[in-house]
Amino acid sequence: MAFFAGQSREQMRRMYLEAWRKFSEKQPLEPLEAQIAAVIAEHPEYLGWIEAGDAALAAEFTPEKGQQNPFLHMGLHLAIREQVATNRPAGIREIHRALTQRFGDAHAAEHTMLDALAETLWEAQRSNRIPDEQAYLERLRKL
Known about the structure:
Order of helices and strands: HHHHHHHH
Low-confidence stretches: none
Shape: globular
Number of domains: 2
Number of helices: 8
Structural class: mainly alpha
Strand content: under 5%
């Protein structure tokens, strides 16, 4: 997600809150804000956090507490959408198209792709290297 590179967790979360505020108030949105607002709109289960203001900025979401991080989840959606739009890694657009056809819509297709992306990013972070695009594509092809 190149558009979030170099930002702190708080700055990134604040972008979500601000994009949703502007969207809710029918203010003009920058292209990235429109993308963020669209992902938020597709996840009404996260609106409580988005509308929580400063509480959302400091919130810790841990699997041990049975919590899914809504910001991570929505960020993965944004990353997949960027990958599909640019077809990077090469071939992801066709995988997404096939999954969209199989599951009935693009959002459902993204949901099937999220774990593969998260696992690939986790492995790269753990190994302190760039994500392995071929391993990622192979995971996606197995879906």
